[in-house]
TrEMBL record:
GO molecular function, one term: lactoperoxidase activity
Protein name: peroxidase
Keywords: Calcium, Disulfide bond, Heme, Hydrogen peroxide, Iron, Metal-binding, Oxidoreductase, Peroxidase, Secreted
Domain of life, source organism: Eukaryota
Disulfide bonds, paired cysteine numbers: C22-C54
Catalytic activity, as annotated: 2 a phenolic donor + H2O2 = 2 a phenolic radical donor + 2 H2O
Cofactor note: Binds 2 calcium ions per subunit. Binds 1 heme b (iron(II)-protoporphyrin IX) group per subunit.
Broadest EC class assigned to this enzyme: oxidoreductase
Pfam families the record matches: peroxidase
EC number: 1.11.1.7
UniProt cross-references to InterPro entries, sorted A to Z: Haem_peroxidase, Haem_peroxidase_sf, Peroxidase_pln
Protein family (similarity comment): Belongs to the peroxidase family.
Length: 149
C-alpha cells in the first residue's frame, strides 16, 4: 500500500530535535554555491556560531543542534520554526522552508501555533508509521544514512 506524503508532512518533520554534522552544512558557511562566500540567508549570529563549531580547514566533523533554540534541543515543539523564520536554520533545506513562497505561510502558522504544530506533527508521524518498511532482500536499514551499507 502506498501513502501520499504531502508538503505538510515533510515540513512538520523531525528537525525539531537532533543534530547535524559539519559536513552536511559546511558549504553554507564558506563557499555557498561556489561563491566563496557564506549563504546570505544565514543570520550573522548563527554564521559565527557555526563557523566556530566547524572551522573552515578543520578535518573534524563536529555536530550542532538542528534547532538553535536554547533549552529546546531535545523537545519536540514549534520553536524550530521561529528559528528558521529568524534565519537560524542550520540546514539549507530547513532555511528554504521559511523562504519559499509555497511553504513560508505554513512555517509561519506552525511558528505561531504550538497546538497546530503538535497536532500536525502527530498526524505526520502516524502517516509515516504506516509506510511499509522493506526488510530482508527488499530493503535496507542504513547504518549511516548518507551511504549504502
Amino acid at each position: 500500500m502506498q501513502y501520499l506524503i504531502i508538503v505538510t508532512d515533510r515540513i512538520v518533520g523531525g528537525h525539531t530535535v537532533g543534530t547535524a554534522h559539519c559536513h552536511s552544512f559546511k558549504q553554507r558557511l564558506y563557499d555557498f554555491h561556489n561563491t566563496n562566500k557564506p549563504d546570505p540567508t544565514i543570520s550573522s549570529s548563527l554564521l559565527q556560531l557555526l563557523q566556530n563549531t566547524c572551522p573552515q580547514n578543520s578535518q573534524s566533523d563536529s555536530e550542532t543542534f538542528l534547532d538553535q533554540t536554547p533549552n529546546s534541543h531535545f523537545i519536540v515543539d514549534n520553536a524550530f520554526y521561529n528559528q528558521i523564520l529568524a534565519h537560524n536554520g542550520t540546514m539549507e533545506i530547513d532555511q528554504n522552508m521559511a523562504l519559499h513562497p509555497l511553504t513560508s505561510d505554513l512555517v509561519k502558522r506552525l511558528a505561531n501555533s504550538p497546538d497546530q504544530f503538535l497536532d500536525q506533527f502527530g498526524q505526520a508521524m502516524v502517516k509515516m508509521g504506516r509506510i511499509g518498511v522493506l526488510t530482508g532482500n527488499q530493503g535496507e536499514i542504513r547504518k549511516t544514512c548518507s551511504s549504502v551499507n
